[in-house]
Amino acid sequence: MDLVPPGSLRPRAADVRCAVTEFGLTTAFMATVFGLVRWGIGTMAPDGPVADLRVRVVLVSALVGLVIVGFAVSPPGRFSGAHMNPAITLGLFASGSVPARRVLPYLVAQSGGSIAAAALTGLLWGPAVSGPGVRWAVVQPGAGWTGPSVAVAEAATLAVIVALMCWAPARRPAWPLAWLVGGLFGLQGAVLGSLTGGSANPARQLGPALFSGEAHLLAVYLIAPVAGGVLAGGVARLLRARPAPGHTRAADDRLIRAAGPAYWAGDRRRHLRAGQAALAAVPAPARGRDRGAGGRRGRDDGHPGPGSRTGRARGGEPGADDRHPVLPAGPGPDRHRRPGRSDHRLRRPPRFRPRPPRPHG
User: Disordered: where is this region (predicted)?
Assistant: First the structure.
């Protein structure tokens, strides 16, 4: 299965609208974070106690986590996904949850939002933004932390967060995903804020570094989170497409079509293309023997038969073999499909209502 199908890099009008929304969300989020850093940490004396600094970092990190939750559950956040982080966008793309055509517009929007937020804070604060306690809210590691140690911490943080975002949609945890992600970002800032800087976001460091001229470990803060997110997304994609043990190859192909990356991306055409590619890899005898209780035999010419899910797109009838034995009954990829002729077993029979007798005469 190709990571980037041919002809899928051209953004659509909906992708452009989502990117514009992502730019506004990133600008507002970064400006809020810079303000919290200035008023929460920048007002502290340079020679203040370390315990006071850690308490301030914990409070600011908790507020940042709540801000992430607020942006994620807002209407603009639900519209664009509220990534506000290039590492999350690339990690979800590696997992198959974000289509390729949205990656470049999102990266441009997030980078531009970081720069716009830094410029906006410079206009609002004036000379105070470059003071010794603020320094454009640029992130720097603590004493004793080198480039490799910061890179490992940043990559591991994004790997855990992206892995959670790939795991949550299939497991349906009790807590909403926005609260889980916001809590993890707040936790990593509280733990690593006074050690590595707790950036975990390339856009968090891009704008302040450009305006302050601070390039110390800039490449680490930009590349390490992306590497961790992409690694976690790639592993999640491989685990999601791994065949289920104890089932036939054709049944595993239906599992890939039902819960594969193309389905989570929400793209119907990618979903059908992935199903066709999966069935094309099955040997012809296996495809010929795959027959459902209510469907017809699949064709042996490399194309899915009318009894498969991809065959329905060609005008065939759905068969009972579309239901994988390990998939639970209930909402699934076909929950929005109108019932066909072979779905009479799933429909409730009409209630018989006898007509009243006609009067004689």
Answer: 276-361
What region does 81 belong to: left with phi over 0, alpha with psi -120 to 50, or beta? left
The DSSP 8-state label assigned to residue 352 in this structure reads: P
Q: Which domains does the chain have, with CATH numbers?
A: 13-240 (1.20.1080.10), 249-287 (no CATH)
> Which tens digit of pLDDT belongs to each residue from 254-300?
545 554 444 444 444 555 556 556 556 655 554 444 444 344 444 34
Residue holding tokens 């470990």?
217
Under DSSP, is residue 205 helix (H, G, I), strand (E, B) or coil?
helix
Q: Cβ–Cβ contacts within 10 Å for residue 7, how many?
A: 8
Q: C-alpha angle 32/37/43, rounded to 5°?
A: 130
d(CA 179, CA 170): 17
Measured in residues, the chain has a length of: 361
Give, for 59, the enclosing helix (H) or strand (E): helix 50-73
